[in-house]
Structure formats: C-alpha cells, structure tokens
Write a structure and sequence with these properties.
The protein is of the alpha/beta class. Helix content is about 45%, strand content about 15%. The protein has three domains: about 1-270, HUPs (Rossmann fold, 3-Layer(aba) Sandwich), CATH 3.40.50; about 290-410, no CATH class; about 425-480, no CATH class. Strand 12 (about 275) and strand 13 (about 280) form a beta hairpin. The protein binds adenosine monophosphate and zinc ion (ZN).
Length: about 475
C-alpha cells in the first residue's frame, strides 16, 4: 500500500518493521468536552486505515491515549489546563469530567462504527513512566530544570522540525496569543516535560516527582504510552494535522533522544473539517456533535459516508447542504443493496468478484483513496454478474468502509415484508417468502431474456392458485 508519510513528505510503500505486524499509535481525545465531528473525522479516517491494514492481512496492535491531564489551552505550554477549565465550567472534579467525556467519546465512536483501539490508556495511569523518561532525558543532557519546571532542550537535537521547515524566529506563538513568553526556556522551541512551580498553582491533579509536586506536560504522555504498549519502535502514528506541530514534533524529540534511534517511521495526518467560518474547534465552544446530528434526524453513519467521500489529506467543508446530499446518496445506496436478492442456487462468480475487488483495493492502496473506494462500491451494481456476487463484494468492502449497508438493507427488507404481510392477511410468512422468491427469479429470467423460464414460473404459481400481475410498481399477486 502506498501511504503519504508526513515525515518524508512523500507517498511511500507501507512496510512494517516486523513482517505481518503493525504497531499503530493514535493520539486520543482531550476529555474536557464532547468530541466534535471534526475530531471524529480524524478518528473515522484512522479507523478506515486500521481496517484496511487488517483487510490486507496484517495484524494490527493499536494504542490510544486519553488526555486527562496536562494539555494547556495552547498546544505550546501556555494558557489554562483544558481539563481544569472543563471541571470549573461544570462544577465537577477533573476525574469526573474525564470519565464522563471519555465514555461519551466511545459512545460516539460506536455510533460511527469506529472500532475501539486494542489498548486505551489514560495519561493519569502512567505518571511513573513519565517521570522515568524525563529522568532519562535529564541524564542524557536533553532536558534541564529552570524556574522549577523541567524543559526539553531542542538545541541538543540534530534536527527538530520534522514535518515543517520552521525556523526558530517563526515561533512567535506566545507573542501572537498575547501570552507572556516563558523566560525559563533556553530556546524558543523548548517545551515543558514536567510542571512544578508554574503559574497554575491551583492545578487539581498533582503528583510527587524528583523535582517536586507537579504534573506532566502534554507531549510526554504519548511518547511514554507508546513505549509502554508498543516498545521502542512504532510503525505508524496518527493524528489530526494540527497535531503535527508542536505535539508530534515534540514526541519525536523525546522518544528519539531517549532511544538514540529512529522511533516511528510513518506519520498519518488527517486534515481538518472546517465550517464556512473556519476550523471546527472545541475551544471555540461552538461545535457540532454526533448527538446533534442525531437530533436533527441524521444517522451517524451518514456522516461516516460523508467523510468517506473525500480524501483525508484535503480539508473538508461541512455544511448542512453537503450532509443532506450525503444522506440522499446513502439512502439510495441502502435501497440498491436491499433490492439485491440472490436466488438460492446462485454462487459467487469468482472472476467478477476479483474484478470488483481490484478496483476497491487499487483505490485504497493509493494513499487510502476512500472516495474512489466508494466509486468502486457503486461500480459493483454495474458488474455483469449475479446478485450473490454483488452482495459478497459489498460485504467484503464493508469490512473496511463499515457503513452499515447490509444491516440497513436487511432492515428495509424486513419492513417491506411486514408491510406485505399486513397487506395480504391470511397468507403465511412461508408462502409469502416463496412467492417473493419466485417473483424475483422471474424478474431475473426476464432480465436475461429467458422468457421460457419466466413463463414457466408464472404457470407454476398459477397451478397453485397464485396469479401474477405486472404493474408499474413491480409485480403484484393475488390468491384464489
Ligand atoms: P483533541 O481532543 O483536541 O486533542 O483532538 C482530538 C483529535 O482531533 C486530534 O487528533 C486533533 O488533531 C483532531 N482535530 C481537532 N480539530 C479537528 C478538526 N477540525 N478536523 C479534524 N480533526 C481535528
Ligand atoms: Zn499524542
């Protein structure tokens, strides 16, 4: 599979370090509020990537952290702690907030068919690991103590900026956000590993450390949680594009300084979901959630379909009109799947199956091109083959796309049968199923211009007192 690697800035063949096994790390949510549908775009596309890797036969171990401490309102080290801000807003403790929004996050993921990672690890579970890595960095000379805090010294690295060609002078974040610059830092790009004497003395969660009571910086958690569950090497690291700098850049700095070798080879970044007024963001306070989509009558899987229709490396603009278009297309797709009824004697046509599958894998092998994979799904209906093969292909693609098409189609068919049964009182379910099967067989025969077979079916039914009537809405029947 060719995958764009933000580190090399090229599309590369994805080859895990250990044959057949992928270690995958995902930056998890900061649980101070509901996830918005922008966050969930990122998790949806990561889910498709994970499912596609599994589909191609690789085994994947995926780890996700839950940020329940240490993420300040700027991704640098300025502003208020996001968790504390959430707790104050809701008059709850930080741990109550964390539990509530972690649960809510996974409920949203379930609704979007986003698989849970193999390992989910809250930052507050790993304080000992953070302290240990910080001690190593101090010992190796990559970290220093200043003003009570521990900082990472970016000047000790051969190369710090991995994803961008920034220069030190470009880092005017503090100034731009009119936050006082931290004079403890030796270099502008340095970042905090452990806070002790900071301006946030009302921090609710604090731990003992060799440098005094305090709490960890945000970036150290991902380096340590990855190490705890995946060891010294990670194949694939994912996150939204805003994570590339400074978060992922700092993760690389910490991990590579600790191990003295390359840490993670492939970096997968999903671009943003924007509205007409810019990036959707939790801290702006106004954002769309899965529950809101549901309240407005949208199936969350329509949103998943909406995400699938565009490439993960392009910004995606959200509007209700765009979502409505996705809803119409999704519903049509489900009805087309529902109308595929395989006759009992049908078997999967291997050549047609391979032809359909190739389009699908070609699309995803090409830097996870999900919109072309959706086109491949539409192309299944055009294949010159039987319904059994088409359904087999759709089921196969659904291992990756996971749009709930088969179950939604089954639901339609069950409802249709129920409506038919209500309209034909006294006819048993078995008889109805038999008649419908024959009607479908006859439709197929007529489509294949096998009129002799079509007539034979009509006569067979007639001999049992069942008369068929072809109407514009399809074939109806009456029983004498
Ligand atoms: P957070 O909970 O803020 O730490 O973010 C969770 C994930 O969502 C991270 O991978 C972010 O990079 C990503 N993210 C944040 N905003 C957006 C957005 N508007 N569109 C897509 N992904 C986003
Ligand atoms: Zn992270």
């Amino acid at each position: 599979m060719l995958l764009y690697n933000s580190a090399s800035r090229e599309r590369e063949q994805f080859v895990p370090r250990e044959a057949g096994k992928v270690s995958m790390y995902t930056c998890g949510p900061t649980v101070y509020h509901f996830a918005h549908i922008g966050n969930l775009r990122t998790y949806t596309m990561e889910d498709v990537l994970e499912k596609y890797l599994r589909y191609t036969g690789l085994s994947v171990k995926r780890v996700m952290n839950i940020t329940d401490v240490g993420h300040l309102s700027s991704d640098g080290d300025t502003g208020e702690d996001k968790m504390l801000k959430g707790a104050r807003r809701e008059h709850k403790t930080v741990l109550e907030i964390a539990k509530y929004y972690t649960d809510a996050f996974f409920v949203d993921c379930d609704k979007l068919n986003i698989k849970r990672p193999d390992v989910i690890e809250p930052a507050t579970n790993c304080i000992d690991e953070f302290i240990e890595m910080i001690e190593t960095l101090l010992k190796k000379g990559y970290a220093y103590e200043a003003g009570g805090n521990i900082y990472f010294d970016t000047s000790k690295l051969g190369k710090y900026y991995v994803f961008n060609d920034f220069k030190e002078e470009d880092l005017e974040v503090g100034v731009r956000e009119s936050v006082e610059e931290d004079t403890n830092k030796r270099n502008k790009a340095d970042f905090v590993l452990w806070f002790t004497k900071s301006k946030f003395e009302d921090q609710e969660l604090k731990w003992n450390s060799p440098w005094g009571v305090g709490y960890p910086g945000w970036h150290i958690e991902c380096s340590c949680i990855a190490a705890k569950h995946l060891g010294e090497y990670v194949d694939l690291h994912c996150g939204g594009i805003d994570n590339a700098f400074p978060h992922h850049t700092n993760e690389i700095a910490q991990s590579e300084a600790t191990y003295g070798h390359e840490w993670c080879k492939y970096w997968f970044h999903v671009h943003h979901l924007n509205t007409n007024s810019g990036k959707m963001s939790k801290s702006k306070g106004e954002f769309l959630t899965v529950s809101l989509l549901e309240e407005k009558g949208y199936d969350p899987l329509v949103y998943r379909f909406f995400c699938m229709q565009s490439h993960y490396r392009r910004n995606l603009v959200f509007s209700w009109e765009n979502l409505d278009n996705a809803k119409t297309a999704y519903n049509k797709l489900v009805s087309r799947v529902a109308s595929l009824t395989a006759a009992q004697d049908e078997t999967v046509d291997a050549a047609a199956f391979e032809e359909g599958k190739k389009k699908f894998t070609d699309a995803l092998d090409n830097d996870l091109n999900t919109s072309l994979a959706v086109t491949a799904l539409y192309d299944v209906f055009k294949l010159q083959t039987n319904a059994k093969t088409k359904l087999a292909l759709i089921e196969d693609f659904e291992r990756v796309l996971d749009l709930g098409l088969i179950s939604a189609a089954e639901k339609i068919n069950v409802e249709k049968k129920k409506a038919e049964a209500d309209a034909t009182p006294g006819v048993s379910e078995e008889l109805l199923a038999y008649i419908n099967e024959k009607i479908e067989e006859r439709r197929e025969a007529k489509k294949n211009k096998d009129f002799a077979k079509a007539d034979a079916i009509r006569d067979e039914l007639l001999s049992k007192g069942i008369t068929l009537l072809d109407t514009r809405e399809g074939t109806k029947f009456s029983i004498s």
